[in-house]
Design a protein that fits this description.
Layout (H helix, E strand, L loop, with lengths): L1 H20 L9 E5 L6 H15 L3 E5 L4 H9 L7 E5 L11 E9 L2 E6 L14 E3 L6 H12 L8 E3 L3 H9 L5 E5 L5 H8 L4 E3 L5 H7 L4 E5 L15 E5 L1 E7 L4 H15 L23 H9 L3 H5 L2 H55 L4 H20 L7 H22 L9
Parallel strand pairs: 1-2, 1-3, 6-7, 6-8
Antiparallel strand pairs: 3-12, 4-12, 5-8, 5-9, 10-11
Length: 432
């Protein structure tokens, strides 16, 4: 019977754990796929650093190359592409068009570089009308953003020759005077940017004179100042302040990516980008500003209070395992206290019930024996008491409860003595 009591308690506890387990996230997959950019670009280099961080924590991050941010957007939206994360340039789309995507934050500024021939007097972008301009390869974020800015200045395919080429292909053409200007979105450490800056005798870096207007009309853009010598200290390039515009690179994931992997991406981003660069001080990135898509819940918690408590002090895989167990402990602790309170009394009641059930029958015999005078009837009741005594003696109870057994048998003996007097087997004075 004790097995039934404790077995029922264990079953209740097991059932509660099973129900809770249905709401616990499964362990994250060991492999994640991320799309970056071209092999020579900053996106690809940063994604490779993420992959190293993932590897250190026991996960594989597969990094795919692409044509750029627009290509990344198309591939992360394609269910058959099996891409869970991407690096994207700010301002390439709107959140309403892609409800299944979330941002984990902004990572770094991506300045818009405009290099033009010194022959071209370029005060505003509208002055590019009638000229040959490289605006970035199709499928790139550069192409999308530059086309938007140029269109606002009435520079379209009808008013200028717009060439869909990136900085690597367009830079030699600019130096050879085959084109008049080129746009590029790249980090300050770009080799192509440095090379064009060194060609300052024939090529000039444009400073956005209406930067404040662009920033106020395009909230994903940031006004930056490149100080003298910011590109090359030895040659003092540029030789004066240059005003630049810059979107920020976003770390984008699918909404259904496992929450633990979102935290792993955030930890990787913090590890890779926290030191800052020419345009951002240490600790400025990653952050929740200038987002391309809504911020995920995990990122919101991360920027508010840092990584979850267990991830701060335990290895990542151990932390997420402990996090899952913590959820299971809630019903466990909730049920254990009442079970500990209820089970022992229920067990004691069940043991005592085995013994006390005989008292009902014993009381009936005692009532009959109280007014009994017939010796034959007394001997018949003695046989019943003898049978009861044997049954009580054979009742199995823990040693700690045997006092109940002997107390019952003592009461049986008292009634037996009274009946033996009536049956004439002993004299009344012998019962004392």
């Amino acid at each position: 019977m004790s097995f039934i009591i404790y077995g029922a308690a264990v079953s209740v506890l097991g059932g509660a754990l099973w129900v809770t387990f249905q709401f616990v996230q499964p362990l994250p997959p060991k492999k994640v796929t991320m799309v970056s950019g071209g092999e020579g670009g900053a996106y690809y280099a940063f994604a490779k650093q993420y992959a190293q961080f993932f590897k250190k924590h026991g996960y594989e991050l597969e990094v795919l190359t692409s044509k750029g941010s627009m290509d990344n957007l198309n591939r992360i939206n394609d269910p058959e592409a099996d891409v869970q994360a991407a690096l994207m340039q700010g301002g390439i789309t709107t959140a309403e068009q892609h409800p299944d995507l979330e941002s984990l934050g902004s990572l770094f500024y991506e300045p818009i570089w405009v290099f033009h021939s010194k022959r071209l007097r370029l005060k505003t972008l509208a002055d590019l009308k009638g000229h040959k301009v490289a605006i970035g390869a199709e499928g790139s974020g550069t192409h999308h953003l530059v086309s938007t800015l140029l269109a606002e200045n009435d520079i379209t395919a009808e008013t200028a020759t717009l060439i869909p080429e990136g900085i690597s292909e367009a830079a030699p053409q600019l130096q050879d005077r085959k084109i008049d200007a080129l746009f590029a979105i790249s980090g300050i450490n770009s080799q192509a940017v440095e090379d064009l800056s060194l060609a300052h005798k024939t090529v000039k870096l444009y400073s956005f004179d209406r930067a404040e207007t662009y920033v106020r009309t395009h909230h994903y853009l940031k006004k930056l100042t490149l100080p003298p010598g910011g590109i090359d200290l030895i040659n003092n390039l540029p030789d004066s302040d240059v005003t630049l515009l810059a979107p920020t690179a976003n770390l984008v994931v699918r909404e259904d990516l496992h929450p633990a992997l979102k935290y792993l991406f955030l930890l990787a981003a913090d590890h890779v980008h926290k030191d800052g660069d020419m345009f951002a001080p240490s600790g400025h990135f990653p952050n929740k500003e200038a987002l391309l898509f809504p911020l995920s819940d995990e990122a919101r918690n991360f920027y508010k209070s840092g990584p979850p408590f267990l991830m701060r002090y335990l290895p990542f895989q151990l932390a997420i395992t402990a996090e899952r167990l913590k959820i299971l402990l809630i019903p466990l602790l909730t049920l254990l206290f009442p079970l500990f309170k209820i089970t022992p009394p229920a067990y004691r009641w069940q043991i005592r019930r085995r013994i006390f059930k005989w008292y009902k029958h014993l009381k009936e015999l005692d009532m009959k024996a109280y007014e009994l005078t017939d010796p034959a009837e007394a001997r018949k009741m003695l046989e019943q008491l003898e049978h009861m005594d044997r049954m009580v003696l054979e009742t199995s109870v823990p040693l700690s409860y045997t006092d109940y057994i002997y107390s019952l048998r003592l009461h049986i003996r008292m009634i037996e003595q009274r009946l033996k007097v009536i049956a004439g087997e002993i004299k009344e004075q012998d019962t004392v």
